[in-house]
What does this fold into?
Amino acid sequence: MIIDFHNHIFPEIVREKAIKNMEEGYNLANFQDGSVDTLLEIDRQAGITTAVVLGVATCPRQVTDVNNYIIKEVKAHQELVGFGSVHPNYDKNIEEIERITAEGLKGIKLHPDMQEFMLDAEEMDEVYRYLSEKKIPLIIHCGDISRDNDSPERVAAFLDKYPNITLIAAHFGGWLLFDRAYDALKDKKCYVDCSSSQMFLGDRHTRELIRMYGADRVVYGSDFPVWNPVKCLEKFYGLELTEEENRKILYQNAAEILHM
It folds into this structure.
């Protein structure tokens, strides 16, 4: 059993634009096409049994459309688990979280950079309190050398304010800021995912970070369509972690977060 905790899929009408924006935003190329069919086919090739698909609404008017798309695909494909989206400028966030969790989505994804807000914005306090109270997992894109929206230090302060929230800090807690993120988050109560990281860190540093955080705190992620899940999983196995470390990172930790 393998759970890939970090994937993005897009409906056909916006797929080309979404991929182009991601390529330009991260200065990367050779993305997959971002369709659910491609994700499922590649996951079958890789032996990935469950893919967590993450919705991100970049503006308030997208919230319900993004969530409805994720709900539809999750209901159509038993291999998928869905996380929905909210937005600080959307006026019915709590009602929307209630709706989408009733429809079967398991958590919330935030991308403060793309959604253009600071992680600790006061407008989100009600959302964070609700997620903490209801034990609904939250995964956040973290880190970017050019922005402070979700810097490691801001994530650490966020966790001090909401110590009971179930947080998955993506990209080892700080994309391209991996060591700085470890220093900020090493003593905090959160998980990190390893998506979009090993290709920048290299094998030795990735292995070191996993063991510094501890395998109990790490979940596996590929960040499809940025990367090919087959190749990502091959690279992960190349770390030559112990059987117990692999079991925790590839399945056990994620299963506990998702109550599977």
Remarks:
- The CA atoms of residues 142 and 227 lie 18 Å apart.
- Residues 3-258 form a domain with the TIM Barrel fold (CATH 3.20.20.140).
- The radius of gyration is 17 Å.
- The mean pLDDT is 95.
